[in-house]
Amino acid sequence: MNRPRRARRRATRLLLTLSLLAGLALTSAACAEEPPPVVSVLGPWTGDEEESFEKVLDEFTLKSGITYDYQGTTSLRETLLAQVQAGSPPDIAILNSLGELTEYAHQGVLVPLPEKVRERSPQPWAPELTVRGRKNTYWTPVKVDLKSVVWHYPGRSAQRGDWCVGMGSGATSGWPGSDWIEDILLQRSGPAVYEQWATGELPWGSPEVREAWETWGRLIGGGAQADAALSNDYDGSDHKGLLKRSGDGCRREHQGSFIRRLYGKDITYVPTSKAVAGLHNERGAYEVAGDMAALFRDTEGARALLTFLTGDQARATWAKAVSERNRPFFPVSVGSYGDAWANRAVNETLTGARRLCADASDAMPPGIRDAFHRAVLEFLAAPSDKKLLSGLLQQLDDETLRHRELLTPRVPSVCAAPQGGLYGAVK
Q1: Rounded mean pLDDT, 362-382
Q2: 389 and 258, same structural domain?
Q3: pTM here?
Q4: Nearest CA to 303 among 17, 12, 99, 60?
Q5: Which Gene3D superfamilies does the UniProt record give (predicted)?
Q6: 47-64 and 300-309 are packed helices; what angle lies between their axes, rounded to 10 degrees?
Q7: Does residue 232 surpass a pLDDT of 70?
Q8: Cα(124)–Cα(107) distance, integer angstroms
Q9: Residues 275 and 295 in one domain
Q10: Is residue 240 domain-shared with residue 388, that is, in the same domain?
């Protein structure tokens, strides 16, 4: 992010704070009023995504008189862990890892959600945990995405080996491949098998899981395409999306609904089950992900902000603050999509789902998730090598066993029927 933009936003927040202080001074006989509380928020959004989210936070400040201090970072896990270990966590942190959140909850670091927020926190994004013998919900989705998605140019016929794959990103590598394997397993074997595997009850070496890896290996193939996958970032070298590349036969991309922010109306999407031969989504199940907000400090301001973020006003403000193709999805609808080019299709898919399943690697303990991502990268070196795959799956089973022996807490469930039936953003 450039410095002038950050300076302008900080100046805006300062003006808001000064205006609030001036109002307090006018309505009080005392000149030494206490300053309004400040809520610290740590989240994943930087650049233009940070700008749009801060418009929501500004709306909260105007409404409540509570100011905020938002820190956006692409190294969210490391930053949050360092702050927690130093005894100075943010009031609210927003992250997508259910596995990390589960560990924080069992460590006693998280505060259970206020009742009003808990009522707005649907599964599979916010499962109920049993911690120290008591059931509670510890995080709530503020933004969600559909993962069972393939993007393509309409009218271009599909060909073998024409998949766009970029395994790297600014924060971590491997997750675009784990998304592929997870989605194939869900579409081929159904939500019951998927949930058993995601929660550690089904071995990595089971026939269903192995077949998902092998199916992805056949789709990607080896040689130049696998090499390109290992050397590319998921958003392309120019940060405009892999489908915008030319001259390499890249025509289709399996990526979450968030990727539409990089594309225009010339690119559309279909569910994975319609794009990959042999996948038949007869169960109406789709993989989803989300950005979850959790309370690390039990303050009045933090509770008020969390309540605001899960309400219609915040969602409407957020949706209107960005361009049509960058509008976020929410766990409930706050309006209609109108004729938005891809938004309506994503919304209809989620609306028609019979089962939604959280991203499996997000739900795994961090150690297993990281091992999964590393295994995906190693697998791409030789996707047709059955001996290599057997070794990788055994390593993942060994890592799972190690965490079981350490009594590492796990998310109890990852699949659920949609609650409310509507997902979306305002027109």
Answers
A1: 95
A2: yes
A3: 0.88
A4: 60
A5: Periplasmic binding protein-like II (3.40.190.10)
A6: 120
A7: yes
A8: 22
A9: no
A10: yes
Say yes or no: 249 and 164 in one domain. yes
pLDDT at site 173: 82
Q: Does residue 79 lie in a domain region?
A: yes
Tokens 């959790």: give the residue. 294
The total of structural domains in the chain comes to: 3
102 in Cβ contact with 298 (< 8 Å): no
Q: Could you tell me if 45 and 133 lie in one domain?
A: yes
Domain that holds residue 95: 35-143+289-332
pLDDT in tens, 122-147: 999 999 999 999 999 999 999 999 99
Residue 53 lies in a domain: yes
Over residues 80-96, mean pLDDT = 96
On average, the pLDDT of the chain sits at: 85
Residues 130 and 180 both lie in one domain = no
pLDDT-derived band at 215, boundaries 50, 70, 90: very high
In whole angstroms, what separates CA 423 from the centre of its chain?
A: 15
Given a cut of 60, whether residue 19 has pLDDT beyond it is no
Residue 137, domain member (yes or no)? yes
CATH of the domain at 110: 3.40.190.10
Residue 420 has pLDDT above 70, yes or no: no
pLDDT tens digits along 254-271: 999 988 888 877 888 888
Q: 357 lies in a domain?
A: no
**376 Cβ neighbours under 8 A, 6+ residues apart:** 167, 174, 177, 178, 181
CA distances, 312 to each of 98, 308, 317, 322, 421 (Å): 24, 8, 8, 16, 16
- At position 274, the amino acid (one-letter code) is K
In this structure, are 319 and 245 located in the same domain? no
